[in-house]
Specification:
Blueprint lengths: L1 H15 L15 E6 L4 E6 L5 E2 L5 H11 L7 E3 L2 H5 L15 E3 H11 L2 H12 L3 H14 L19 E2 L1 H11 L3 H9 L1 E2 L10 E2 L16 E9 L3 E10 L2 E11 L6 H15 E7 L6 E7 L2 E9 L3 E6 L7 E6 L3 E3 L7 E9 L2 E9 L8 H16 L1 H9 L13 H8 L7
Parallel strand pairs: 13-17
Antiparallel strand pairs: 1-2, 1-11, 3-6, 4-5, 7-8, 9-10, 10-11, 12-15, 13-14, 14-19, 16-18, 18-19
Helix pairs in contact: 2-5, 2-7, 4-5, 5-6
């Protein structure tokens, strides 16, 4: 009871003081939240995204990723479900109980795990992937953590584990889920929201259990594509899901949500996604050819400036009331850069902020190779020599013009007329 009260107090504090990338009046109860527009890679809502919390059954996302790669033939590799296997598990959620004495393929086990967030199936997949060497499988999980840039995640088991040793964050869960969604089998299972093992009949059909995917649930959200969830001891729950509406896809992560309550993580996912669709739009901030800054380039014979361009064009998701004057850049550019270097090579960076909130960190590069082409270098060299030898001429030309000013003829009425002619959501 004390732990429940403490957790509730934590929720109330977050409810009173939400922290988001863009101003919103959406009231949430989940402690840690993260909402990203996948089309523009823009974080639009962020609340304690880097706070460690139990990974719970969300660890099965990593188990899916690895077992899909490690098992050579998902259909021919099979697993006979025995009660002794289930009884020996450190944690059991009963997802395989209905399959006792039945044989499932690795593909079947994956579908069970994904649709039910089934921990028992995760352990079975780990055993198939590593010849029952779970320590080796867990080591592979943690190696992939580093590869994906998940800075605050650690695993000690392939399935559910209710200890702080197996932990993650909203931001890390986002990175993992984004990788998992590249898998077509994952997407197809979630798209159908059900699966029947190939060797068994319809009596063994599995259906998605996440409330946000269940049409009979009060927490169903019709625009949801896929979801993985976890809950423990009737106290807290976790959810990661994507939604798509009018061609825009958002990825939601919520950790430490209230379980079995109207103010739960499913309700927060629906409210935040709806807020984003109604109040945010996509804007093109700049093109690859735009000049954002410059850098001094040092060659063997001298120095000259080179314009810096963004490495990519940038689309970002911003409020419908987008005001370009609120867009600012903070540059990190070296004082000088030595030649040679190639076009497209990163020569500096720029942090892009909107209304004081950082929305992107972009690489800056030159549009041409420098120090590699003889003709180009010769032209820059002669211009450099001329400026070094005749700097006084430029000053004299401005301060003491030696030639009389030339009157510019006024255009005729016909040419003047020609010159004045014009040239060719719902969130």
């Amino acid at each position: 009871m004390i732990s429940v009260v403490l957790i509730f107090a934590l929720f109330v504090s977050n409810f009173i003081i939400p922290a988001s990338s863009f101003e919103t009046k959406v009231e949430t109860s989940t402690s840690d939240l993260f909402l990203v527009n996948l089309d523009t890679d823009t974080v639009v809502f962020s609340q304690k995204p880097d706070t460690n919390w139990y990974a719970g059954s969300l660890s099965e996302l990593m188990t899916f990723l690895l077992s899909y790669e490690m098992i050579a033939d998902l259909d021919k590799t099979t697993f006979k479900v025995e009660k002794s296997f289930i009884d020996a598990l450190p944690y059991s959620d009963g997802c395989l109980d209905r399959f006792v004495d039945q044989t499932l393929s690795a593909r079947d086990l994956m579908a069970v795990m994904l649709l039910t967030s089934g921990s028992d199936a995760a352990y079975a997949l780990a055993d198939l992937s590593s010849n029952k060497d779970r320590d080796t499988f867990v080591a592979a999980m943690n190696e992939r953590v580093a590869t994906l840039g998940m800075k605050s995640t650690a695993y000690v088991s392939p399935g559910f584990n209710n200890t702080s040793a197996q932990h993650t964050t909203c931001r890390d869960t986002y990175l993992l889920y984004r990788e998992v969604r590249k898998n077509e089998f994952f997407l197809s299972v979630m798209r159908k929201k059900s699966y029947t093992p190939a060797a068994l009949g319809e009596d063994y059909m599995i259906e998605a259990e996440a409330s946000i995917l269940n049409e009979d649930s009060p927490y169903y959200f019709r625009y949801t594509n896929d979801a993985m969830y976890s809950y423990t001891e009737e106290t807290y729950e976790e959810l990661v899901a994507t939604t798509t509406y009018h061609g825009k896809t958002y990825l939601f992560v919520g950790l430490l949500g209230l379980h079995q309550s109207e103010r739960n993580v499913y309700a927060d996912a629906r409210k935040l996604a709806s807020w984003a669709y109604l109040n945010l739009s996509d804007y093109k901030l700049f093109n690859e050819e735009d000049v954002l800054s410059d850098v001094t380039v040092t060659a063997n014979w001298g120095e000259y400036p080179v314009a810096l361009h963004p490495y990519n064009s940038a689309y970002k998701t911003l409020p419908n009331s987008y005001d370009e004057s609120k867009l600012t850049y903070q540059f990190d550019i070296p004082k000088t850069v030595k030649t040679p270097f190639l076009s497209g090579q990163s020569l500096g960076r720029a942090k892009v902020s909107y209304a004081g909130e950082e929305i992107d960190d972009i690489a800056l590069s030159a549009s041409t190779d420098e120090g590699l082409g003889m003709l180009s270098d010769f032209g820059k060299f002669t211009g450099y020599v001329y400026r070094r030898m005749t700097p006084h001429r430029e000053v004299l030309a401005e301060e003491f013009p030696t030639e009389p000013a030339v009157n510019v003829a006024q255009p005729s009425s016909e040419s003047a007329t020609a010159a004045a002619a014009p040239t060719a959501t719902e969130g």
